[in-house]
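Protocol step 4 of 6.
Sequence for EF-hand domain-containing protein (Magallana gigas) entered exactly as in the expression construct, tag removed. Do not edit the line below.
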Amino acid sequence: TIFSDIDGDGSKSISKDEFIREMTKKNRQDAFREFFAANDTDGSGALTADEIRKFASEDSEASVEEILAQCDANSDGKITLEEFLKGIDG
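Step 5 output, structure tokens:
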């Protein structure tokens, strides 16, 4: 359940620290979602290598390949939002 996910120590109550940690995680995920949407320029619901190159333009081609390797769980050459969030947040 959502409650047990937030209650990290299993105390059956949510401490201030647990609450702050969860809200920080949610804010990060919201920011990642916005970043993903802004960079999914073709609206396909997935980031292609070309779209990754645009936001990683200052980095090398190796960085694009590293991003794909880290996030593209099914190795289809694209990164879905779900893959992106898992790859970035671990």
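Step 6, annotate. The domain at 15-89 is CATH 1.10.238.10 (Recoverin; domain 1).
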